[in-house]
Structure formats: structure tokens, C-alpha cells
Design brief:
The complex is a heterotrimer.
Chain A (H helix, E strand, L loop, with lengths): L1 E11 L6 H8 L13 H10 L9 E5 L5 H10 L5 H7 L3 H9 L6 E6 L4 H11 L5 E7 L3 H4 L9 E8 L7 E6 L10 H10 L3 E6 L2 E7 L1
Chain B lengths: L8 E10 L2 E2 H9 L6 E4 L8 E5 L15 H8 L14 E4 L5 H10 L10 H12 L5 E4 L5 H14 L6 E7 L3 H9 L21 E2 L1 E9 L5 E9 L12 H13 L5 E4 L6 H14 L5 E2 L2 H4 L6 H15 L1 E2 L19 E2 L5 E8 L3 E8 L2
Parallel strand pairs in B: 4-8, 5-6, 5-7, 11-12, 11-15
Antiparallel strand pairs in B: 1-2, 1-9, 3-4, 7-9, 10-16, 13-14, 15-16
Helix pairs in contact in B: 1-10, 7-8
Chain C lengths: L3 H13 L25 H15 L6 H7 L3 H11 L10
The chains are: A alpha+beta, B alpha/beta, C mainly alpha.
Chain lengths: 217, 370, 93
């Protein structure tokens, strides 16, 4: 089993809030003028990273199944005069980059993952195996009903971030992976977010050979 | 047996496909000075300015449903040593920058919903995995043009943690109007042919199709990845810190691992000016005297696949005894370490391979061999 | 009386880049657009170029040319006057 301990948790659960409202709510987390180009996903990722204070020595693991769906759609709509800003913004892992570039925070290890059914297991594995004393596991989606009908968007906007270290003292909880998961193990990002938000324990096969265990003290 | 964390990381097999063919054909073409890039309309059949592109032979930029590049992946996958890929002990790491985003462009242009089957990264990977008979232990890595390096690093960590017996890193990027339009809007995919590491008035890149794989395991012998490193400047989306510190920070651990070796370097070298200058000057400083090459002046930038495509070509070069030079580079170059002509590589015992990406992302590894 | 093209370009900058906290008349004629007090960067510059090309029918070829043309609003206006078709310079309705 590989395990790390949760020392900080942050969530963003803004419900049906539109991007302009998110921008108004979170603008003070960023330098003046920075939020004019930020997406809703970038803003909520910033909302969860801010209290965790990312450092250059951290390993940051970022998971998003759908990523920048609004920027993607807007970029496609800009053709034939393609928008360079929307092109840039639509490329994974834009959300975390929007935040850390606004804050000018370099990071040595940054692992952006996509995927769907096993994304949580692989993101957790990446965070648990990262070198260095602290990993930040973060993820999120932005709501985009238009693409949703084709399975290409999220029904809700959300974000989460967990700070993980090897030290159990004073921990809020623990995150572990053990072997023996069912061959069809799966865990969606939105379901993992709900467990983190609600401080619910989880124990389930999340990928072939990987059982995920989330516990709270 | 030595514990996993002290065993060498062996490259059991590698392979690639570019516009010039498989790894051996690509290397042979580069040694002859062939340039795969040609001036083609930026939006493919929809026209637009002529820009340097290197799609697979016969491939149209406008995506079909299913994508025409699937046959290329089928051919490439046939070279992968058989194993229960995607099972618990044989993880797959799929790395790309754009996955099937050309299919999303095609949906928007044609309204054909069949393109959604490969439009999003997860859908593309699930489609490919099912087609190639993989299990679902497939990690999807998406970090722009350092994606392949990140995949190699994650594969290594899984092996050293005892979570896998062998790991497959599978990388691809196929150009589409979505991508060519974007780089054209950034004014770096313009009418000029790329000249990596050359001190010109205007910088230009080319874009190309690419796909590659590597099978990794712990063990002795053959080609090995002796060090891997990453760094992310987070200074600006399309620019680097002007002092080059981001490049140097990434290269430092690789340089430490390479101490005492006689090296040549496969750089990123897309043809942009400022990044090319910073990269080549920093490499010359960290690895004095090491000849520097980039092959993007011929193959184009193969985006998320470039790290693994160029690793496969580097291995083909080592097998052939000759390293292709920096095709299309024009003196004066930013440093005198830029190797424009091919050279014999028999006297070297290591290769540093480096890639860079948007956001000031850097990745590098040391390829060593007996 | 203010140069009409300068006024139009300044408004285009504010609108294209969504500079909600800035009025067009607060943009100086002769200061650099990029890397100055306006906090605009190279991506803003390129986004501006797309709009300029569409509105004025001009063609800017490279990122290096972009930087040169956007060295100030006055410089940009001179470039547009020299390269745009005359009908594109007529006042907007």
C-alpha cells in the first residue's frame, strides 16, 4: 500500500454560478487585471490552490476530464480568424497555468492528467509517488451544458485541492492506494470531489489493480 | 536482485512514425538532409496562408470519422512487444497535447456527430485502447509539448514503486486546422521555414504529425534512461524567463547524472528566436562542447509526441552510428555548438534529450548506453 | 481635436482585451503598449492583431513584426494609415 496524509483541503462548489460571477467573487485572489483572461475553471482552481500556497518544491498533480470546454468552444467559433488567446487558453493544463502564471509561482513537478473512468486512481497514484515532501492533488471541471449532450462537458462546476505529505501527525485524513482492485475499477472525478467536499470516506476499486482508500480523522 | 529504486531503467523497445516513416527511415532521411516540411494551406482543404507542415503522406488536415491516422497507430502498435497492456502490472501511459481535437473542429465545420467519438482526450484514448485491445489501466497525460517526457517519468515511478512489471508509453499528435490555426494566430507558424537555433530576423516553426512508443522495464543492458527532470517556470504562457534560469533549473540534475560522459544533445529547437537562443546558450553553458541538434527543421514540431518521437530517432541514430544534423539551420547560429551537419556518434556515451512547452515547461532526460 | 483613428484604435484595444478598468482616453499615444503600465503582454498583442487584421484589412506576418507595430498607439496608427485600404479608414457608422 502507498499512502500519504492530508494536511489541507479546499473545495469550490459554486453551483450554477456563471463565469462573470465567479470572476467577481474570486478576483481579489489575483493581481489586478489578471482575471480578465481567466476561465471559470482557472478561477475555481485558483480558489482551491490559494489557501494551500503552492511552493516550487511541491509536486502538483492536476486532473480534469473535460478541462477548458468554454474556451474550446469559443476558440472553434473564432475561425477563420482564430483567436490566439482562446487557443492558448483551451490547451490543457491551462487552468493551473493561468493561476500559477498570474502568481508567478514556478513548480518543479507538475503532472496534468486527463482521462475519465480511472483518472482519480491515476492522479492519486501520481501524487503518492511524487518525490519531495509535499504533493498537491487538485482537479476540477467547469459546467458547459451545450457540450454535455455529447458527453463532452461537465454538468457542474467544481474544484478541489488536497495537500499530502508523508507525515501522519496532525493530519485531517489519509489517501492511499492498495493492490487488488477489480479489473474494471473506476471512479469519476466528480464522485471523488463529492467525497472530499462532504468529508466522506471512500473505499473502492478505482482502476485495475488499484483500490483507493480515503479516510478522515 | 537489486531493489527497484537502484536498478537501471531500461528501454526495452522504441518506435515512431513521422512524415518520413518509421524510426529507421526517419533517421535515414534526416541523415540525407531530407526535409519533410512543405508549404501547405494552414486550414487544409479550407485554404489559408501557406505554412510549413509535415502531415503523414496522403493525410488531409480535415479529420475524417473515424480519423485517418488510426491506421498509423495500428502500424506502430504492431511493433510493440506483446504483453497484457492496460492490465494491473502492465500500465499504459498515453501522452498527447491535442489527442483528437481535430475531430472537434470537424464537428463544428460539418455537424457530423460521429466525430465526437474521438473529440475529447478521454474519448480518443478509450477509442484507441479498445481498438488496440488494451485493458483500462491507462493513464492519460496531457502537458502540451512535454507530455511524452512526463509519461516516461510517471512510468519510471510506477516501475520503481513495484506497481508494474513493464510500462508502455504511447504518444501521438496529428495536426489539424484547430492546431495549425492556433499557431498561425500566434504568428510563429508563418510563411517561413524553420531554422532551429539560427540567429535570423524572424522566427518560424513548422508542425508535423508524429507518433511513438517506448516500453520500459527495470534491468541491465541496452539503452537506458539514466536521469529524468522537469521544471515549470510559470512565468508566461508563451515566453520564458529572460535569464534562461528555467532551462538551467531543469538541466541541472541531468548534468549531474551525466558527469564524466561525452555527450551530444537533442534539443527542442522549434525555430522560434528567443526560446531558441535561451535554450541553445543554456545548453552550451551546462554541457560545454556538446554538439547540439534539432530535427524540427525537417520533421516539424510534433507537439505532444515530440519527446518520444525524437527519442526513438536518437536511438535509431545510435544504432546507425551517425547523428543527423540540424537540418535547415543557417549560420550564424546562437552558439557554435549547433551541429548543422551529421556526425559520427561512436565516440559518445550519452545523449541529453530536452523538450519545452507553453507555460515555460521544461523536461530533459539522459539516454545512456553501453 | 483628437485624431479619429487614434480614438478608434484605443477603443478597439479596450473592447478587444476587455479592459474593464480602463477608459480608451486613458491610453497614452506614445507609450509602449506591451510591457508597460497597461499590463498587456504578447498574447494581448496577438489578440489585438487578429482584430486589427479583420477591421482594417492589414496583414501582420510574424511575432517580431507584431512587437514593432505595437510599440505605441501612435506607431500603430501610422502603420494602419500606411497599409490599410482607404475604405477601411473611413469613420465607422
Amino acid at each position: 500500500m502507498i499512502e500519504r496524509f492530508i494536511h489541507a483541503v479546499a473545495v469550490e462548489d459554486p453551483g450554477p454560478e456563471e463565469p462573470a460571477q465567479t470572476r467577481d467573487r474570486l478576483r481579489d485572489l489575483f493581481p489586478p487585471g489578471a482575471t480578465r483572461r481567466m476561465t471559470q475553471l482557472g478561477l475555481v482552481i485558483g480558489g482551491v490552490l490559494h489557501p494551500l500556497d503552492p511552493r516550487e518544491t511541491d509536486a502538483i498533480v492536476y486532473a480534469s476530464t473535460h478541462a477548458e470546454t468554454r474556451a474550446l468552444e469559443a476558440y472553434l467559433a473564432s475561425f477563420p480568424n482564430a483567436s490566439p488567446m482562446l487557443f492558448q487558453t483551451s490547451i490543457h493544463p491551462s487552468a493551473v497555468q493561468q493561476v500559477l502564471i498570474a502568481w508567478e509561482r514556478p513548480v518543479g513537478q507538475f503532472f496534468p492528467l486527463a482521462g475519465r473512468l480511472q483518472i482519480v486512481a491515476h492522479a492519486v497514484q501520481t501524487a503518492l509517488l511524487a518525490s519531495g515532501s509535499r504533493s498537491i492533488l487538485c482537479g476540477g471541471e467547469e459546467r458547459k451544458p451545450v457540450l454535455l449532450g455529447q458527453g463532452a462537458g461537465s454538468a457542474i462546476t467544481f474544484a478541489f485541492a488536497l495537500a499530502l505529505t508523508p507525515d501522519p501527525a496532525g493530519a485531517l485524513g489519509a489517501l492511499a492506494l492498495s493492490g487488488g482492485g477489480a479489473p474494471d475499477g473506476r471512479l469519476l472525478l466528480c464522485d471523488f470531489f463529492a467525497a472530499v467536499r462532504d468529508r466522506r470516506p471512500l473505499r473502492q476499486a478505482a482502476a485495475p489493480g488499484l483500490e483507493l482508500i480515503l479516510s478522515w480523522t | 536482485m537489486a531493489p527497484p529504486d537502484s536498478q537501471p531503467l531500461r528501454l526495452r523497445a522504441t518506435g515512431c512514425r513521422t512524415a518520413l516513416g518509421d524510426a529507421r527511415a526517419t533517421c535515414a532521411g534526416l541523415l540525407l538532409g531530407r526535409r519533410a516540411l512543405e508549404l501547405l494551406p494552414v486550414l487544409g482543404s479550407e485554404g489559408g496562408d501557406p505554412v510549413p507542415l509535415a502531415p503523414l503522406p496522403g493525410r488531409n488536415l480535415m479529420e475524417t470519422a473515424p480519423p485517418a491516422w488510426l491506421s498509423c497507430l495500428d502500424e506502430l502498435a504492431a511493433e510493440i512487444p506483446p504483453a497484457p497492456w492496460g492490465s494491473a502490472r502492465h500500465p499504459v501511459f498515453v501522452t498527447s497535447s491535442n489527442f483528437g481535437v481535430g475531430s472537434l473542429y470537424a464537428v463544428q465545420r460539418t455537424g457530423d456527430p460521429r466525430h465526437f467519438a474521438t473529440g475529447m482526450p478521454f474519448a480518443t484514448v478509450e477509442f484507441i485502447g479498445a481498438r488496440l485491445g488494451w485493458g483500462t489501466n491507462v493513464t492519460v497525460v496531457s502537458h502540451a509539448c512535454v507530455s511524452a517526457h512526463v509519461g516516461l517519468l510517471l512510468a519510471e515511478r510506477g516501475l520503481r514503486a513495484g506497481l508494474a512489471d513493464r510500462a508502455l508509453v504511447f504518444s501521438f499528435d496529428f495536426i489539424s486546422p484547430f492546431v495549425t490555426g492556433g499557431f498561425h494566430a500566434l504568428k510563429i507558424l508563418n510563411g517561413g521555414m524553420p531554422a532551429p537555433f539560427s540567429a535570423r530576423a524572424t522566427g518560424s516553426i513548422g508542425l508535423g504529425d508524429g507518433a511513438a512508443f517506448a516500453v520500459l522495464e527495470l534491468g541491465q543492458g541496452g539503452y537506458r534512461l539514466s536521469a529524468q527532470a522537469t521544471h515549470n517556470e510559470m512565468h508566461h504562457f508563451t515566453g520564458n524567463r529572460p535569464d534562461g534560469a528555467g532551462f538551467a533549473t531543469c538541466l541541472a540534475p541531468v548534468a549531474a547524472a551525466a558527469a564524466g560522459r561525452r555527450l551530444w544533445i537533442k534539443g527542442h529547437g522549434t525555430g522560434t528566436l528567443e526560446a531558441g537562443r535561451l535554450e541553445s546558450v543554456t545548453l552550451a553553458s551546462v554541457f560545454p562542447g556538446a554538439p547540439l541538434v534539432s530535427w524540427k527543421g525537417s520533421l516539424g514540431h510534433t507537439l505532444g509526441s515530440c519527446g518520444l518521437v525524437e527519442l526513438a530517432v536518437a536511438i535509431a541514430a545510435l544504432d546507425s552510428g551517425r547523428t543527423p544534423g540540424t537540418i535547415a539551420a543557417e549560420p550564424p547560429c546562437f552558439t557554435d555548438t549547433v551541429a548543422i551537419a551529421p556526425f559520427a556518434n561512436g565516440g559518445f556515451d550519452g545523449v541529453v534529450l530536452a523538450s519545452n512547452a507553453f507555460g515555460g515547461a521544461h523536461a530533459a532526460c539522459l539516454l545512456s548506453h553501453d | 481635436m483628437a485624431d479619429a483613428l487614434l480614438v478608434r484604435l484605443k477603443q478597439l484595444i479596450v473592447d478587444t482585451l476587455k479592459l474593464d478598468d480602463l477608459r480608451a482616453d486613458q491610453i497614452p499615444d506614445d507609450e509602449p503598449l506591451i510591457g508597460s503600465g497597461l499590463n498587456l503582454d504578447s498574447i494581448d498583442a496577438l489578440e489585438l492583431v487578429v482584430q486589427l487584421e479583420r477591421e482594417f484589412g492589414i496583414k501582420i506576418r510574424s511575432s517580431e513584426e507584431t512587437r514593432a507595430i505595437l510599440s505605441s498607439v501612435a506607431h500603430l496608427a501610422a502603420y494602419v494609415r500606411a497599409h490599410a485600404p482607404p475604405e477601411k479608414l473611413l469613420p465607422l457608422p
